[in-house]
Amino acid sequence: MKVSIITDVLNAKDTIGDAIRSVLTQTYKNIEYLVVDGRSTDGTIEVINKYQDRIAKIVSEPDGNHFEAMNKGLTLATGDIIAYLHADDVFASEKVIEKVISVFERTDVDCVWGDLVYVSSKNPNRVVRYWKSCAYRDNLFALGWMPPHPTFFVKKSVYEKYGYFKTNLPISADYELMLRFLHKHNISGYYLPEVLVRMRTGGLSNKSIRNIIQKSIEDYRAWKTNDEGCAIITIAMKNIQKVPQLFTR
Question: Domains along the chain?
Answer without folding.
Answer: 3-247 (3.90.550.10)
